[in-house]
Amino acid sequence: MTTSKESLPTQLVDGMGRTIVNLRVSVTDRCNFRCTYCMPADNVEFMNRSNLLSFEEIVRVVNIVSKMGIRRIRLTGGEPLMRKDLSQLIRMIKDVDLIEDIAMTTNAYFLKEHAQELKDAGLKRLNVSLDALDPEKFKEVNRRDCLEQVLEGLKEANRVGFKSIKINAVAVRNFSETEIMDLIEMGRSDGFEIRFIEFMPLDADRSWEREKVLFGHEILDSIRKKYDLVPVDNSLDIGPASEYNFADGKGKIGIITAVSNPFCDHCNRIRMTADGKLRTCLFSTNEHNLKDLIRNGASDEDIGKAVHDAVLIKEPGHKINLDSFEQPERAMYAIGG
Length: 337
Ligand code: SAM
Ligand code: SF4
Fold this sequence. Notes:
Elements: E1 12-13, E2 19-20, E3 22-26, H1 55-66, E4 72-76, H2 86-94, E5 101-106, H3 111-121, E6 125-129, H4 135-142, H5 147-160, E7 164-171, H6 180-190, E8 193-198, H7 216-224, E9 229-231, E10 242-246, E11 252-256, E12 269-272, E13 277-279, E14 288-289, H8 290-295, H9 300-312, H10 332-335
Parallel strand pairs: 3-4, 3-12, 4-5, 5-6, 6-7, 7-8, 8-11
Antiparallel strand pairs: 1-2, 9-10, 10-11, 12-13, 13-14
Bound molecules: S-adenosylmethionine (SAM) and iron/sulfur cluster.
């Protein structure tokens, strides 16, 4: 079923009955890191800058989809802080009436310099990617030698008082095992929720294999050797992470079992790439070109209808666990994780 121009719905509900309230906006595919699970080591071909949506174009889409039920925006990339004047975009999104929450996922490299201005602009929540606290292991996975700079960024973000700072660590077998407890201890002492995300087949090197995924249940087992964990009841606000409180009251962790136990049945998000393609699933092999609509003079109703029609055919779930799985052409940095 499609909709006529005059009757854009006030809610985005897909063909499976899932109500979409989150939009993840990638602002660039450029990044100063080259994480092994995401980007190639070198020879990266980035998008031509003229193809990146301008702030005005992004905010136009945000404004349209806000009237269709989108309430939360997450800025991502590539590294979102590689995009000049990002705080300006945050201020513009904050002025969109119906948007309730603006968050960002970052590698934290530029946070020391920008945390305060981002907070002042209206950014509420931060997810920082940090896979290893050992400098050598950090260098091995991020292909950059800058753990100190990232830790300083994190410290500054904490100092300026973000409402929530979560740390994302990609869980890779034969790599992450040694880092789990160090990250956990840092989270407990500094007030960060540490989230482990099972390694997904979205790496540019296409070297993902199931054997390389460190599974959520294994991570929980190793944490439980030291700490008792109490599952958090998230039934009223189901997100991708299963969360656990430490029984001693000192903090919380999250496990995102994207491979071993996907949360697709509860997925409430869509994504827009930096070049204005709407993706209804992280693993979509089909995209909806909003940029051409925008640049060819489409009305807000036309753009809203394109989003609505795309959401109606949102994929029921990813197929990582099926023989028919096809890795999307774009790797994570070009999609916007
Ligand atoms: N550059 C920013 C950063 O790293 O936080 C934002 C973009 S990054 C693509 C967003 C998130 O995707 C990060 O938390 C990163 O760890 C995660 N990610 C990237 N590749 C992944 C993969 N193959 N499997 C699981 N998570 C991945
Ligand atoms: Fe860059 Fe983030 Fe990808 Fe790492 S995960 S290469 S920081 S976009």
